[in-house]
Amino acid sequence: MDKHFLHIKDLTKEEIFDLISLSKDLKSKFRNKEDFKHFHNKSLAMIFAKPSARTRISFETGFTWMGGHALFLGPNDIGIGKREANKDIARVVSRYNDVIMARLFDHKHILELAEYSNSPVVNGLTDYNHPCQIMADILTISEHRGTLDDLHVCYVGDGNNIVHSWLQLAARLPMKFTCLCPEGFSPDEATVELAMTNGVSEIVISHDTIEGIKGADVIYTDVWASMGQKEEAEAREKLFAEFQVNGDMMSRTGKDTLFMHCLPAERGRETTDNVMEADYSIVFDQAENRLHVQNAIMVALTS
Ligand code: CP
Ligand code: NVA
Predict the structure, then answer these.
(1) By residue range, what is the domain housing residue 219?
(2) Ligand 2 site, CB within 6 A
(3) Cα angle vertex 131, ends 60, 148, to 5°?
(4) Prior bond to 264 cis, omega within 30?
(5) 0.90 cut: is pTM over it?
(6) What spacing in Å lies between the alpha carbon of 197 and ligand 1's midpoint?
(7) Cα of 270 from ligand 2 centre, angstroms
(8) Is 179 a catalytic residue?
(9) Which of 143, 145, 163, 286 has the most other CB atoms within 10 Å of its CB?
């Protein structure tokens, strides 16, 4: 595996399957409260320029369970991107800490951290992508479906950081991936191109909420305005109205379809209370799997 965990495209198909298998093993150990002290006497620096519930809690809980100590460094602590150069932060923090996890705005900043850090850097979300989330998602789908064969994932909403990581996964694992978004909110062209041209998967970018969802095994959504875009939320509400994942949309796929959302959800906007609470909703399994997948990523990076 690469020295850092920054993008799904940096992994081979075999490395993705190895991570899924290690995640399952660590999940069973964690649930059985077994001792697994891989990070005894080690420390994790968690750098957050944006808010978080799942990422912060799951990394800290996971690293502590594995015998180490996790430090939370919030937006006002080290002033990442403001107080000193990222390349200086990278070299200082990696002298103290064995692993660095960072959630940043600008993707270039995490690339710079990784370039100058002697410790592995894990991407906990940037404006561009969210690879830990998509690894947790694919583990969750494999648990619910029993297989990743013949998979059609239809993402509905903004062509954002979540979509970029799905596209990179589709460049490694065969699937049909549809991104159903309003015009003007398509994902990054270069990332679509990467997924389309390497020929592993069928990629569809569509604006048709009737045709696009047909045959989907999974309907996945995310907030219409991501962190850093919240002032656009009201304006986006009108533009995205037709893209709400509600009971009607879920019933029009033509098959039994799972509902997924990376969370946090804005109920009443991109999805509804009924869908979040339905039997086909697996959003909390997804959230739990963040912990197990990230444990596996950190173990793999340090083994
Ligand atoms: N899904 C996710 O990353 O959640 P947080 O923003 O709460 O960490
Ligand atoms: N697209 C969302 C994901 C949150 C986990 C955001 O960036 O805010």
Answers:
(1) 133-286
(2) 125, 160-162, 222-223, 226-227, 262
(3) 110
(4) yes
(5) yes
(6) 30
(7) 13
(8) no
(9) 163
